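Input chain follows. Return structure tokens only.
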Amino acid sequence: MPPFNGFSSKWLIYQSTIFGGIHIPIFVGFAIVAIFISAVTLASFIKFFGASFYGKLRTPSGDTTPGDVPVLMQIPQTVLAALCIVIGLMPLVPLRWIYRSVASIYSGVQLPQFAEVLGGGTSAVGLNFGGGLVANWHPVTVTLVGLVLLVLSYGIYRSGRAQRRAVDTWYCGEMHTDAEVHYKAHSFYLPFKQMFRVRIGRHEWEGVYITIRYPELRLRPDNWLVKAVDVDRWFFYPIVNGFYKVSEWFRKSHVGIPHVYLAWAIVGVIGAVWLLFALH
């Protein structure tokens, strides 16, 4: 959703695949796949919506008022969130980087100029596939309109002078726990799964993925087939154990004496110089 970077990216994908289908019909199929993936992504985020607004906050420890993460963990989250907004408001900046990369790879191919395809501004994206402007996207304008509507909504809320109060959740007079009345996110998925229900004769599957029950094969742990398919036992574990043994041997060189460390550094420099001349 605007003004984030994901909307600009998907907008470009939709426009390019739909208009590209005029000349290459398979691109229309790509557009349908992209729209379907967007719908599935929206369905996955319903889980966060349900956890936020359709039940009390639940944590593994049972504490309803948990603390926030440390500042060092908030900094990268804040930076990434800010980049999502900045790139969403100025999508042409990363698009120029992508164009320069593609142009450097195909240096011998005559490519159209960047401004001819996507425009020459910083914020507004105008698509031109050679027959004139076919689509235009102004993220800053849409963001300003959204901010105006947000301020207007807040003004209406404040003008009503509604009283805010915190009370216990009312469960219609019945004695229920919070977990019993919590509307889980799985309930939102049911209509989505039913829409893609597959039925062939008397057999019916919920969802687009057909679950096949294979016959169960029980073998003893010392069976040769079990040992053959156990890649961890005959491939991964020996490599890890060998690495541990080498590490233990190498750890003995760390004796805590600076002279020994200096000797190792001299040996390393001599080895690097020898390798450099040998490769040359």
